[in-house]
């Protein structure tokens, strides 16, 4: 009798665990940028995660059908580009602000798959929070335009990651994540090598990259794939939009990133929109 509610709550716990893990990993990764740059850390993180996942799951033992393989390739490309772009943004603006901009992607998924006016109202609340982050508003801190553009690009990739991740979520989750991470590695490792060269293979970089791979790739993406297989795409997109608050806290506690009052208010608006959307997601 009690097992069913626990199982129904498991996807939500998986998303919470994923958000905490990926944002703590992001804050730790930002501290490594001086060694090999954001693309170098991205390549190390994704490359090591790919090796570990392929070795653990050995997905080649269950070949994919052609349509599934195409979706997995797109899922992996979006995963790799999302990582490159978000780390490029992290290098220029605070983590919490980056994620607040990036959630445009999941919120777009909410809008495009919604049939209820209330969801558009919650998205409007989040949009107001994003507007507060714009440097044109009173009290807003100046933001690097390249960082903003990279964060917005990461948001598009995040939306596509959700869309195509949902399409392949009915397959074996571990196999999908392993194949997707391999494709992501093929996208990111050449860029990282071009930026950092042989410095990527320094012991300090490899050890740090391994930690980031565990925190920001292997654990969160596996948890998200489990959640995607049990939640509607729209609900998943709503819940992961809580990322800005978690990212801001991770940036504050791990890196000492201090946000302005306006930036905290903006992030708060996005969190309120997320909580409201999640609270009403299952209602008619």
Automatic annotation (TrEMBL):
Q: How does it sit in the membrane?
A: Multi-pass membrane protein
Keyword Cell membrane among record annotations = yes
EamA domain boundaries: 146-275
Q: Where in or outside the cell is it found?
A: Cell membrane
InterPro entries for the chain:
Diverse_Substrate_Transporter, EamA_dom, EmrE-like
Which top-level group of life is the source organism from?
Bacteria
Q: Which UniProt keywords apply?
A: Cell membrane, Membrane, Transmembrane, Transmembrane helix
Q: What is this protein called?
A: DMT family transporter
Q: What broad class describes the main subcellular location of this protein?
A: membrane
Q: Which Pfam families match?
A: EamA
| Annotated TM spans | 39-57, 69-89, 95-113, 120-140, 146-164, 176-195, 201-223, 235-255, 261-281
Q: Does the keyword RNA-binding apply?
A: no
